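Much of the work behind modern protein science is quiet bookkeeping, done one molecule at a time. Below is the pair of lines this work produces for a single protein:

***
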Amino acid sequence: MSSPNVIQLTEATFDQEVLNATAPVLVDFWATWCGPCKMIAPILDEIAEEKAGSVKVCKVDVDENQAISARYGIRAIPTLLLFKNGEVKEQIVGGMVSKRDLLAKLDSLL
């Protein structure tokens, strides 16, 4: 389904992988039944490959990890959160963003 560089998060791994990360982290809140989520997935896979080592790309299945979704007020999917130093720096709801724009947002966090 996704690149080996995309980390599948759970409630048990979220804090370690995202909040304690030294690099910027892009977190995709998604669900298996979500059409727009499937459309943005290949873009996120490409970013995970291109930015491996400098940016983490992670996914949270909202159906399986409702506590994380509630913690960040996720009400629509896909929602992308960009974290730096454990803090949300950017939120993109609906996933309608180009790869170029996402890369620019990530580069601004480096």
The radius of gyration is 12 Å.
